[in-house]
Amino acid sequence: MTQLTALGKSSPAPVVRRGPKRSRRAVALNLIAVVIGLAVWTLLAGVGVQGLPGPVEVAGKAAELLSDGTLPLDALASLRRVLLGFLLGTLLAVPIGFLMGWYATARGLLEPYVQFFRTIPPLAIIPLAIVLMGIGEVPKVFVIFLASFLSSVVATFQGVVDVDRTLINAARVLGASDRTIFLKVVVPASTPFILVGMRVGLGSAWGTLVAAELIAAQEGLGFRMQQAQLYYDLSTIFVGLIAIGVLGLLMDRLLLLAERRLTDWQERR
Amino acid sequence: MNAKISFRDVVKTYPMKDGTFTALDHVSLDIADREFVTVVGPSGCGKSTLMSMAAGLVEASAGETLVDGKPVTGPGPDRGVIFQQYALFPWLTVRKNVEFGLKLMELPAEERRRRAERAIELVGLSDFADALPKTLSGGMKQRCAIARAYAVNPQVLLMDEPFGALDALTRVQLQDQLLDTWSQDQRTVMFITHDVDEAVYLASRVIVMAARPGRIQRIIDVDLPYPRTEEMRLSPEFGRIRNEVWHAVYHQAPASSAA
Ligand SMILES: Nc1ncnc2c1ncn2[C@@H]1O[C@H](COP(=O)(O)OP(=O)(O)OP(=O)(O)O)[C@@H](O)[C@H]1O
Ligand SMILES: [Mg+2]
User: Fold this and answer.
1) CA A224, CA B162: separation in Å to the nearest integer?
2) Is B202 in the pocket of ligand 1 (CB under 6 A)?
3) CATH number corresponding to A79-215+242-262
4) B217 to chain A nearest CA, in Å?
5) N or C terminus: fewer CB in 10 A for chain B?
6) What sequence ranges are listed for the domain ABC transmembrane type-1 (chain A) (predicted)?
7) Are the C-beta atoms of B192 and B48 separated by less than 8 Å?
8) Which atom of ligand 1 is nearest to the CA of B14?
């Protein structure tokens, strides 16, 4: 009887999700992979690959750097640069990408620059940035900004260009003005592209970080690793690498979550 | 005749690598106010192109399209369009899709809600009003697109194979609903279909087009009274007209000059 009522009230749109069993299996496999990786690492360190510290040694170093406050301070400094550069880059990239996608004139004017600078690795800008901007925070943030700007701008632009013409026509025949079409059709339709661009942008922002911190930094994960390199301190280098990886992964997951939320309407194949 | 839509010597060509492709070759057609015409013809003969001109989405290469005697300069909410490819906004629920045009009319929220509700009910999607398009079947998407066009209550309905993706039963139901609303609201309807039965059942005139180059082959009057009934589908007169249309579509003489 209860079952009948439940059936009668069936909700219209059942959402298919992966069973918990399957994802638990995936997590288990992930964990196994990590354990195997650690084992191989230990083994390699054990058989004496030149100066390679084992996981335990690195963990000890991490604990030491954590307790004396170096690691949190470095991470904070790096995070601040990455976030600042990334946010500025994305904030500028989205409107410019929209402009380029929407107005042929803007596209004609901006595209050569975007395409040209995209072929230059952001790191190659560093010498120029130092000369022009000195050795403070500005050049570091600038280089990260440039890296994330360029990947986001291209994605946004592509998203706008790829908006389905029939959707625009559907809005037009319902009486939508250009402004409405832009806000109610083009923006939502290109959101998935923008979010993918942001993820790529975040990736390149992190990628640029270490090199940006080569520019006479006083703190930061990249700077710490540079220092460690001078003293042949492999453990600290490993701690830095892992910290960058973990932070990057966390930020990527956050963006992925936002992407899932905002673009849940997409038909995924 | 009091023409609501008239195509006057309309030509549409597309530039191609080797010369130009003629999608429509001097098409002239008057559709009377409150008339229901259907357009049939082989794939690629320019049915959608012709309709898009009335919608104001495609510009003619030569000739002109008039609505209410005025040249069409762009799309407008007086002409509702149902596209061959549903064209639902995938990020909006069924209800929000249907309300899209109503919002642009700046109706009060209450009125908007009521009209959307009515249109959704008409196409039988009430249980799915809050579902996203990705969770709907092809036929349901098409019904949602129909509701979206009905809701703004346009004087002219331009429908491009709107029932193409529907099963036979839903199709017949929606045909009867369409005729019902048409006879109540007295709109002008231009309806493209590849189903000869449907073309005859709905229309007072069937426009048969031919391809390469796209042109009007024949216009066949359907001398059956409205309201149309299911019995009429079985009548000898209906059968005769259907055969005539069928013949005109599928036994077309090749174009006089090579395309
Ligand atoms: N943008 C375009 N560029 C070049 N050719 C085009 C373009 N749009 C349409 N055509 C051509 O014009 C012709 C008519 O197209 P249209 O879409 O009007 O056909 P249709 O009669 O609606 O066909 P179907 O029944 O398959 O929907 C086709 O041969 C098509 O290839
Ligand atoms: Mg077509």
Assistant:
1) 65
2) no
3) 1.10.3720.10
4) 29
5) N
6) 75-255
7) yes
8) 4
> Is residue B27 a contact partner of residue B3, using CB atoms and an 8 Å limit?
no
Domain coordinates in residue numbering, chain A: 79-215+242-262
Please choose, from the candidates B133, B140, B125, B100, the residue with its C-alpha nearest in 3D space to the C-alpha of residue A265: B133
CA B227 from centroid of its chain's CA atoms:
19
Residue pLDDT, tens place only, B182-235? 988 889 999 999 999 999 999 999 999 999 899 999 999 999 999 999 899 999
pTM of the prediction? 0.81
CATH homologous superfamily of domain B1-78+157-166+185-259?
P-loop containing nucleotide triphosphate hydrolases (3.40.50.300)
> Tokens 């929407």 identify what position?
A102
Ligand lying nearest the CA atom of residue B14: 1
Here the ipTM equals 0.88
Q: Measured between alpha carbons, how far is A93 from A90 in angstroms, rounded to an integer?
A: 5
Q: Structure tokens of A215?
A: 């520019």
Q: Is B211 in the pocket of ligand 1 (CB under 6 A)?
A: no
* CA dihedral over A29, A31, A33, A35, signed as positive or negative: negative
Q: What is the atom index within ligand 1 of the atom nearest the CA of B16?
A: 4
Amino acid at A266: Q
All structural domains of chain B with their residue ranges = 1-78+157-166+185-259, 84-153
Q: What is the pLDDT of residues B222-233, one digit of tens each?
A: 999 999 998 999
pLDDT reading at B31 higher than 60:
yes
The residue among B116, B178, B169 whose CA lies nearest residue B144 is B116
B49 lines ligand 1 (CB under 6 A): yes
Nearest residue, CB atoms, B89 vs list A12, A172, A185: A185
